[in-house]
Amino acid sequence: MPSLTGFQEDRVGAYIEKDPYAVLDYSLDWTNWMPSGDTITSISITADTGITIDSTTNTDYIATAYISGGTAGTIYNVEYKIVTTNGLQDSRNFRIKVVERQA
After folding, report:
1. Which CATH number fits domain 8-98: 2.60.40.2310, 1.20.81.30, 2.70.98.90, 3.30.70.2740?
2. What is the per-residue pLDDT across 58-81, written as a single tens digit (0 to 9) for each?
3. Between vectors from CA 26 to CA 23 and to CA 28, what angle results, nearest 5°?
4. Torsion of CA 70, 72, 76, 78, to 10 degrees
5. I want to staple 68 with a disulfide (CB 3.0 to 4.6 A). Which of 23, 59, 94, 96 is the partner?
6. pTM above 0.70, yes or no
């Protein structure tokens, strides 16, 4: 499984909290999953309606999405799909819980 930094986990799986106003980058690191010498060649990142994938980028081992929007009190699913130079494919999901953050 890719590394998840800053994420929390409940009985359903991994999630992270986000303020509706925030535009933040969310990265998944496949370094520990990927065989030696293999790298990411393409990514596809999708999310439930109501939250926006503004842009995506990747390095050899890390897939990143810049995500904005969402309605406070709503939970959104985000899916990252990768294809590697050796033709391997993988998919990971996490949830974003949108909450109004206080100072």
Report:
1. 2.60.40.2310
2. 999 999 999 999 999 999 999 999
3. 170
4. 50
5. 23
6. yes
